[in-house]
Amino acid sequence: MRIILDTDKKTITVPWNYQDKLDAINEIIMEVSQDEKKQKSFTGYIDELWNYCIEHSDKCVKTGAKPFKKKDNKEVNA
Fold first, then answer.
1. CA-based, 20 to 30 A from 62: which of 7, 35, 38, 52?
2. Cα dist. 13→6, 31, 39, 64 in Å?
3. Residue 42: CB partners within 8 Å, gap ≥ 6?
4. 65 near 76, Cβ under 8 Å?
5. Sequence-separated (6 or more) residues with CB below 8 Å from residue 58
């Protein structure tokens, strides 16, 4: 599941079916542990992922590839 943090707009974008996926995760938690305290909340799950990734930044934080810039045909044919 991809969750996008946009620091410019100060937004977090989740998939359209994020709540369904979260419900499925919580269902598995209940089947395994029977402990409602271990269930994930909508924002708590994002916070948990963020904290884990920052703690393990050497493995979890990745730098994206440099954007590809298409060359102008006029320059290529000149």
1. 38
2. 8, 29, 21, 18
3. 18, 19, 22
4. no
5. none
Angle between helices 18-33 and 42-55 (to 10 degrees): 80
pTM of the model: 0.69
Tokens of 54: 């920052």
Displacement of CA 37 from its chain's centroid (Å):
23
Q: Six-digit token pair at 74?
A: 């006029």
- Give 27-76 pLDDT, tens digit per residue: 999 999 999 999 999 999 999 999 999 999 999 988 889 988 887 666 55
Instruction: Look up residue 17 and give its DSSP letter.
Output: T
